[in-house]
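Exercise 3.2. Students should predict the tertiary structure of the chain below and write it as structure tokens, then compare their answer with the key that follows.

Predict this chain's 3D structure.
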Amino acid sequence: QVQLVESGGGLVQSGGSLRLSCAASGFIFSIKTMNWYRQAPGKQRDLVAIITGGGSTTYADSVKGRFTISRDNAKKTVYLQMNNLNPEDTAVYYCNTSPNYWGRGTQVTVSS
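Answer key:
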């Protein structure tokens, strides 16, 4: 069955960096578009970044220039490198792929 397992979250100071990972299994990873979403307390879940099977990327305006999504098809893993973090980036970060598969999420907390 499809599994998505996020890791790499934690507590970081404003201006710091984290790299999230999402290990995938149960489907042909290399051809699938993979997405990172985030959900802050009391807010809706928002799309953060997308990477297609061909490696094309798209970012939310709020993270452009700070976050980088990448993938390693051999490891069936998608990454989210997050730099220059600020408190507004505090959220649970989720990995997603179609049609509606989600990981459990990893908490990112940025202190000011």
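Discussion points: The first strand starts at residue 3 and ends at 7. The mean pLDDT is 97.
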